[in-house]
Structures are given as C-alpha cells and as structure tokens.
Amino acid sequence: MRMAFIGASSVAIATVRTLSKQGHDIIMVEIDKEKIERLSEQMDCGFIHGDGTRPDILKEIDPESTEIVFCFTRDDQSNIIASLVARSLGFKRVVTKLEDPEFDHIAIELGLESIVVPSRTIALYLADMIEGRNILEITSIIKGDARVYAFVVHEEMEGSLSALELPEDCRVMCIYRQDELILPDADSQLKLDDEVVLISHQKRLNDLRARFGVKKRHAVPESD
After folding, report:
1. Which secondary structure element, helix H or strand E, spans residue 80, and what is its range?
2. Residue 105 is part of a domain; what is its CATH number?
3. Domain residues for 62?
4. Residue 97 Cα to chain centre, angstroms
C-alpha cells in the first residue's frame, strides 16, 4: 500500500519504520532539509523536501495512487491545514494528528474524520489498563461494512434527535456535550456544538458527509 506522511515528527518516524518493515511504499514530506538528510540514511522510504500544507507539494505525492496521507507534523494548525488541502486534492483517506485535544472539536466541525490525539489515547489506555480493561478492543468490534462518523451540531440542527431522520442503517451511538458523555434515547435533544457520533453502513458515508459535513464558511479555497 502506498502512503504519505506530512512531517517527520517522532510519531511519524516510529510509524514509518514499522510500516516500511511490512513492505508498504511510503513517502515522507518534511520542511527541514537537514532532517531529511539524516533520516534518509536510517529509513527505507522516499522523501520530498517542502511545506506539506502547500497544494503544489502535496500534488507531488500523487493523490490518485496514494491510499492514505498522515498529517503528522509537530504543529496542530499545520496538520489541520494540510489535512484540508489533502482532502481537497482528492486523497482517498486523510489522518490528522492533534497534540492539543482542544482542536479535536474544530477538526470534527471541519469535516476531518480520522483524528488521532496521542496524549488522550495514551491517557485513556493507561487508565483502562490499570482497571483491567483494553480500549483497543473497539477495533475488533467495528467490522465489515460498519463505519463510525461524527459531526458537530449547528444552529439549524438543534432540537429533537428524532428530527435528524437518519437512514435505517445508521444509528446514534453517543453525544458529547462539553466533553460529557450522553447516551441518547428517543427524547434526547441536540444542542449547539454537541458532537454526535454515529455508526453507519459505509455506503451511507457520502450522504452523511453531504448532510452533516463541513459548512461553506469553512471551505478551503481552491489554489490557482
């Protein structure tokens, strides 16, 4: 599988080393030329020197032949911008790394679907490990055509949860309201800025994105 990593952060380097051993074709984009020179002697992957938030640099990766692009720089804002640009260029899947959980809500509102927050993941994993639980078991629960999709509630969506009129093969799993977990029922009400997490058949994802995805005010302008 062909993949690309934007930014040579410690998480990106560790992930690339593991994936390259598994035989994947990997390209890494890094703005620091000296870092590329050091890493090229240690890692089995290709490199592109440049700013991964720029469309012209991302086009060099070849969106059509790249399965996944990981936006893994050390700067959250750069990762969000790179993710939006990558999505606008047609990359099949975009994964966004965020160090500050405060950006998580914004990233969801912008329509970014694959978000990784290492600090939160590690904290939850360690807390559950102490209690004898394994949060990674969810990877064995979401199988086949099942997919998870999240969106942020805007003013026009406020009101009864049932008013969403979701397809038969789509259900609300939970709602986050200012980080509070809510398990909804038929009488649940949606409020502004709630994060709604759905489980759906994969064939419904395009419809869900069109209906609940990024608003026009957040659209990425096309480059010349």
Report:
1. helix 76-88
2. 3.40.50.720
3. 2-123
4. 7
Q: What pLDDT score was predicted for residue 218?
A: 39
Q: How many CA atoms lie within 13 A of 213 on its CB side?
A: 15
165 in any annotated domain: yes
- Taking a C-beta distance cutoff of 8 angstroms, is the pair 213, 151 a contact? yes
Instruction: Check residues 113 and 139 and name the one with the higher pLDDT.
Output: 113
What pTM was estimated for this model as a whole? 0.67
Taking the CB of residue 149, how many other CB atoms lie within 10 A of it? Answer: 20
Long-range contacts at 165-172 (CB < 8 A, ≥ 24 apart) = 166/198, 167/200, 167/201, 167/204, 167/207, 169/200, 169/201, 169/203, 169/204, 170/198, 170/199, 170/200, 170/201, 170/204, 170/208, 171/198, 171/199, 171/200, 172/196, 172/197, 172/198
| Cα–Cα nearest to 31, from 14, 55, 1, 7 | 7
